[in-house]
Amino acid sequence: MNDATPLNADQQELDKFSQLAHRWWDPSSEFKPLHDINPLRLEYIDSLAGLSAKHVLDVGCGGGILSESMAARGANVTGIDLGEKALKVAKLHLLESGQKVDYRLIAVEALAQQEAGQYDVVTCMEMLEHVPDPASIVRACSQLVKPGGQVFFSTLNRNLKSYLFAVIGAEYVLNMLPRGTHEYAKFLKPSELARHCRASGLVVDEVTGMSYNPLSKVYSLGKDTSVNYMLACRREA
């Protein structure tokens, strides 16, 4: 990626998360849902990839919630993001946790030109619904993982239920997220994400749903992919 290539990022999205960056590690803040779902997605990734001693890239790492938890499982983790304030928060939190993560301010497409095929596992969580060109992110993730390596994505489905739950419910009724966190038009159907994966040389292994029970306030994994879902795939050897 040269200097003339525009960043695959929405400046308004970056600004939005920058304003909240200092609250990233507050489990009662706007980032509470990320803290709540992190144990689920960590176990899911670890159960399929076996994180210990693996070289892992966390794309769109933000303040480092997933990055640190993967490092705690014994992975050698690199976290990248375009949010400078979030990365500063992530680096500061390492002083408190004692974990080791290599945080870098770089676009995934640029890193793919520098370190193609260098990672055993690539994760990209809750990011695709915030960028102008998700296919470009998927392509870069495929380039960065080693042949036979695994890539994990999570995002939001696009349908009436996801609009009602993830936008109206989470942002306006339950106030779980700041209003304007999500833009419905950027949500991705599993079939669309799977198509991007196949076009990038990735084989889709499984799609798993993540559901939230507003009564018990508990998240769980299952077959219901109608709102939140994770997609596990691997690069062809």
UniProtKB/TrEMBL annotation:
The lineage of its organism: Bacteria, Pseudomonadati, Pseudomonadota, Betaproteobacteria, Nitrosomonadales. Its EC number is 2.1.1.222, 2.1.1.64. It comes from the Bacteria. Gene3D superfamilies: Vaccinia Virus protein VP39. It catalyses: a 3-(all-trans-polyprenyl)benzene-1,2-diol + S-adenosyl-L-methionine = a 2-methoxy-6-(all-trans-polyprenyl)phenol + S-adenosyl-L-homocysteine + H(+); a 3-demethylubiquinol + S-adenosyl-L-methionine = a ubiquinol + S-adenosyl-L-homocysteine + H(+). Belongs to the methyltransferase superfamily. UbiG/COQ3 family. The gene is ubiG. PANTHER family: METHYLTRANSFERASE, UBIQUINONE BIOSYNTHESIS O-METHYLTRANSFERASE, MITOCHONDRIAL. S-adenosyl-L-methionine binds at residues 41, 60, 81, 125. GO terms for molecular function: 2-polyprenyl-6-hydroxyphenol methylase activity; 3-demethylubiquinol 3-O-methyltransferase activity; polyprenyldihydroxybenzoate methyltransferase activity. This is Ubiquinone biosynthesis O-methyltransferase. Keywords: Methyltransferase, S-adenosyl-L-methionine, Transferase, Ubiquinone, Ubiquinone biosynthesis. The keyword tRNA-binding does not apply. One of its GO terms (biological process) is methylation. Pathway: Cofactor biosynthesis; ubiquinone biosynthesis. O-methyltransferase that catalyzes the 2 O-methylation steps in the ubiquinone biosynthetic pathway. It comes from Sulfurimicrobium lacus. It holds the Pfam family Methyltransf_23. The keyword Cell cycle does not apply.
